[in-house]
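Request:
Um, any thoughts?
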Amino acid sequence: MIGNGGEVLYFADMKKLALLLLTVSPAFADTAVVEAVAFSNGRFDVTLSHPDTGWEHYADGWRIELADGTILGTRVLAHPHVNEQPFTRSDQIAVPDGVTEVFVRTSDNVDGWADDTTPFVLP
C-alpha cells in the first residue's frame, strides 16, 4: 500500500487505475512517414513507410500541397505494401511558376489524411 495525503492506495487499485487509463487513452495513429522526395521534369517521386497490415490498414495516398493548403495533385495508392517498405511511387504534378516549396501530406485508409505535412524545397 502507498500513503497518499491521508488516503491509502493499494497496488491492486493502482493497477486497475493504470489499466483504465490505458484503455481510455486515445490511440495514436500510425501515419505514413515521408522518407524521401525527388522532383524532376514535373514528376514527383515520393518514398513512404507505413506499418501496412494488409487491406485492413495501409497507406492509400499522398498529395502535394502549397503552403496555403491548395492541393496541386494527389497520388492514390491502390493496394497495401506489406512486404515492400519503404516504397516509392511517382506522379506528374504541375507546379505553378514561382513556387519554391511544396508540402507532402500522406493518407491511410483508416486514419485519413495526416494533420502534418513534410516540406520539400523544389530544386
About this structure: The first strand starts at residue 2 and ends at 4. The chain has one domain: 33-121.
